[in-house]
């Protein structure tokens, strides 16, 4: 019982350590680094040149398509975040006022759709929003309009609405958590000092829940800006987003280095969003500071 | 603070609206799957299972279901083993290399899936791995690893070191400690994380679409079918998938939510 098991232990431990570091480095870190390097290569026709150059980045900043599309996409995703918060905040606030079991059951029910097939929801929303869709037909049947509305059919508005519905649960959870963390005695103090409900809400609850709102906005923004399938499905010809442009570089346009450069720029935007979220939102900036 | 009745009414109305927004897109395909759809409108007069019968003859769908399960189960197995190993290592001390490892594991979860997918796509091409089921499995494992790792780590931190030390003091070897002490305590976390990872893999589309060769998983199959246009068997397929997802969610919730969570402030 002496030397052998310990020797075997050491071998197993070595293998485990190798796997623990090797696999993530090989399949996560290495591809991401390779990706950065790829964005510095260039393509001529169908031939890939493995030479370092900044030509892809120069193209991004000088061509008149890409910067405006990125700006438009960022604005779109901020609008998605805004819509999600506008609907998510009242829901989170409503939940935080409930008691015991009911509160967490409702919260679960609001989060479950996140695990429900994303493609299916996207498809269903498309069939609701379409020119001949459920929404237009209901509005016509109710006599509110007599021509199908087109402002939410296969354009950026459709992308905005679809992404908002898909990502709404991501906004509810952080706001709910920040509302739950507000100590009850602060609200009692506010009431004792003669604060009305509205005053307590705007002077105490709202400011203290802002970190949760910022986390929510960050989550929604990051998830929305990386999505290239939703705009493809509901955006039609005019609903062009940055994600779609990147995807097309790897499909029809077949310019992988340029697509990589665009993705690096996307990653930079995402990192900025995450840093802003980490600085002003979430756990650290919570009630206890 | 007592809320005014008007505020409560408004808040519950918004909540109701949000429930409709979230569940409407899920229920509409289920309901319509039982009826015949013609020229874009639903014939409500009689319920039938035609769409489901038609589905059993659709070979592409059956193959996609098989692929989805192969990918999901493999990714779950790989991520559970790797996640456990990494969690055990990171829980055993503090060091810069552990912090870096943890950061790397979280990267695919922080970055948009398009970036994870594209970086793997380029990587596979450069190291000459042909795109296949294997590449999909790698993509899914990388994607769900952060969640699995995090779940196991949280449980390990809950167990603490005293039990492990007791095991060693009583003369158990490292494998014995792992199999007789740690594993039983990790069991529910592993099941919960595994089911959740399977649910994520089951639905994963953006990474899959980038790293797949010719193989279809269910979301890819649905994506292709939907782009071609509307057929009733899509709705039947959708209903089946949603039923499966619901079951998975219930199982995951049962294993991951602590018993006292529901009554936390009651």
Summarize this, please?
The complex is a heterodimer of chains A (289) and B (266). Chain A is mainly alpha-helical.
Physical arrangement of strands within the biggest beta sheet of chain A: 1-2
Give me the secondary-structure category of chain B: mainly alpha
Helix content of chain B: over 70%
Sheet-strand content of chain A, in percent, reads under 5%
Radius of gyration of chain A: 25 Å
CATH-defined topology of chain A? MetI-like fold
CATH architecture of one domain in chain B: Orthogonal Bundle
Keywords (chain B): Cell membrane, Membrane, Transmembrane, Transmembrane helix, Transport
Family (chain B): Belongs to the binding-protein-dependent transport system permease family. CysTW subfamily.
Protein name (chain B): ABC transporter permease
Membrane topology (chain B): Multi-pass membrane protein
Considering the chains and any ligands shown, give keywords for the structure:
heterodimer, A: 289 residues, mainly alpha, MetI-like fold, 12 helices, 73% helix, disordered C terminus, B: 266 residues, two-stranded antiparallel sheet, 11 helices, ABC transporter permease (chain A)
Please explain how this structure is put together.
Chain B: Belongs to the binding-protein-dependent transport system permease family. CysTW subfamily. Chain B: Residues 65-253 form the ABC transmembrane type-1 domain. Chain B: It is a multi-pass membrane protein. Chain B: InterPro entries: Bact_Polyamine_Transport (IPR051789), MetI-like (IPR000515), MetI-like_sf (IPR035906). The complex is a heterodimer of chains A (289) and B (266). Residues 284-289 of chain A have low confidence and may be disordered. The radius of gyration of chain A is 25 Å and the shape is globular. The termini of chain A are far apart. In chain A, 73% of the residues lie in helices and 2% in strands. The longest helix of chain A is centred in the N-terminal third of the chain and has 36 residues, at 3-38. Chain A is mainly alpha-helical. In chain A, strands 1-2 form a two-stranded antiparallel ribbon. Chain B has 266 residues and is mostly helical. Chain B has a domain at 66-216: MetI-like (MetI-like fold, Orthogonal Bundle), CATH 1.10.3720.10. Chain B is 77% helix and 2% strand. Chain B has helices at residues 5-32, 50-56, 59-91, 96-110, 113-126, 133-159, 162-169, 174-203, 206-211, 218-228, 232-256, and strands at residues 36-38, 41-43. In chain B, strands 1-2 form a two-stranded antiparallel ribbon. In chain B, a hairpin with a 2-residue loop joins strand 1 (36-38) and strand 2. Chain B starts with a helix and ends in a 10-residue tail after the last helix. Chains A and B meet through helix 1, helix 3, helix 4, helix 5 and helix 7 of A and helix 1, helix 3, helix 4, helix 5 and helix 6 of B.
């Amino acid at each position: 019982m002496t030397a052998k098991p310990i020797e075997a232990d050491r071998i197993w431990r070595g293998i485990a350590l190798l796997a623990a570091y090797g696999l993530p480095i090989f399949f996560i870190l290495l591809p991401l680094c390779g990706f950065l390097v790829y964005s510095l290569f260039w393509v001529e026709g169908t031939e890939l040149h493995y030479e370092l150059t900044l030509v892809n980045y120069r193209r991004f900043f000088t061509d008149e398509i890409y910067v405006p599309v990125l700006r438009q996409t960022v604005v779109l995703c901020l609008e998605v975040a805004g819509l999600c918060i506008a609907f998510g905040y009242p829901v989170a606030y409503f939940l935080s006022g409930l008691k015991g079991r009911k509160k967490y059951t409702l919260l679960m029910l609001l989060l479950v759709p996140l695990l429900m097939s994303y493609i299916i929801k996207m498809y269903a929303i498309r069939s609701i929003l379409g020119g001949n869709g459920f929404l237009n037909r209901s509005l016509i049947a109710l006599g509110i309009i007599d021509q199908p509305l087109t402002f939410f059919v296969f354009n950026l508005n459709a992308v905005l609405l679809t992404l908002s519905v898909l990502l709404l649960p991501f906004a509810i959870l952080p706001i709910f958590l920040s509302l739950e963390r507000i100590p009850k005695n602060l609200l009692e103090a506010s009431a004792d000092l003669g604060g009305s409900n509205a005053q307590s809400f705007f002077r105490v609850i709202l400011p203290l829940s802002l970190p949760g709102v910022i986390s929510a906005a960050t989550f929604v923004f990051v998830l929305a800006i990386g999505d290239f399938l939703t705009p493809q499905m509901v955006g039609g010809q005019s609903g062009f987003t940055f994600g779609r442009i990147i995807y097309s570089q790897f499909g029809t346009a077949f310019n992988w280095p340029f697509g990589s450069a665009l993705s690096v720029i996307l990653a930079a935007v995402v990192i900025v969003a995450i840093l802003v979220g980490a600085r002003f939102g979430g756990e650290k900036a919570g009630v206890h500071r | 603070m007592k809320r005014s009745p008007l505020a409560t009414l408004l808040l519950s109305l918004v909540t109701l609206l949000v429930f409709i927004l979230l569940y409407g897109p899920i229920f509409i395909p289920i309901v319509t799957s039982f009826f015949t759809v013609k020229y874009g409108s639903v014939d409500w007069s009689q319920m039938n299972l035609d769409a489901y019968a038609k589905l059993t003859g659709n070979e592409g769908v059956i193959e996609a279901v098989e692929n989805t399960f192969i990918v999901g189960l493999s990714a779950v197995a790989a991520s559970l083993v790797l996640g456990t190993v990494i969690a055990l290592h990171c829980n055993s001390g503090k060091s810069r290399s552990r912090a870096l490892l943890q950061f790397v594991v979280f990267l695919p979860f922080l970055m948009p899936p398009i970036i994870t997918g594209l970086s793997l796509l380029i990587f596979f091409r450069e190291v000459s791995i042909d795109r296949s089921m294997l590449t999909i499995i790698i993509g899914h494992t990388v994607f769900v690893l952060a969640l699995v790792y995090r779940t196991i780590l949280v449980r390990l931190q809950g167990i603490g070191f005293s039990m492990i030390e007791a095991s060693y003091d009583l003369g158990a070897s490292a494998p014995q400690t792992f199999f007789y002490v740690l594993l039983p305590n990790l069991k529910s976390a592993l099941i919960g994380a595994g089911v959740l990872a399977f649910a994520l893999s089951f639905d994963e589309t953006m990474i899959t679409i980038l790293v797949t060769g010719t193989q279809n998983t269910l979301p890819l199959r649905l994506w292709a079918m939907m782009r071609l246009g509307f057929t009733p068997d899509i709705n039947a397929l959708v209903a089946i998938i949603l039923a499966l997802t619901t079951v998975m969610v219930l199982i995951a919730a049962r294993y991951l939510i602590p018993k006292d969570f529901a009554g936390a402030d009651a």
